Amino acid sequence: MNEHTARARRVGLGAMTFGAVAGTIVLVAPQAGAWPSNLEVSGGSTHNVGCSYTLTATVEVDRLLSVTFKDNGTELTGSPVSPSILSNKVTINWTPSTPGSHTLTATQDLISKSIAVDVSPASSFGSFGCGLNGLLPSLSG
């Protein structure tokens, strides 16, 4: 093998290695921050013990892997949830059982999105009071 052939092989190997690394970065980097991209809880800014709310996670990239929902590290009943291939939204019902600060988390393929929610004690109107929150704040407990 002459010097020119050896040099061409090294250049080819270097270009192939660079292409493989660049391709991996392009494929992986955008997805790292995109699973899930958003997490929302229904009910506005008022949340009470015993009332039911909907958690909605937006999954921008992977609609094949399930999403696990947790409240303060404890997996919610009904979790994990498989996303629809036609929609980038995944939902689950959440009914807080304790007042105080709750960290709600949606995790898909080791990537998580979390939000903090403050939960007030149960309404003095029971489950009927769940519908009053925000409408008649002076009547809700």
From TrEMBL:
GO biological process: carbohydrate metabolic process
The name this protein goes by in its record: Ig-like domain-containing protein
Taxonomic source organism: Nocardia yunnanensis
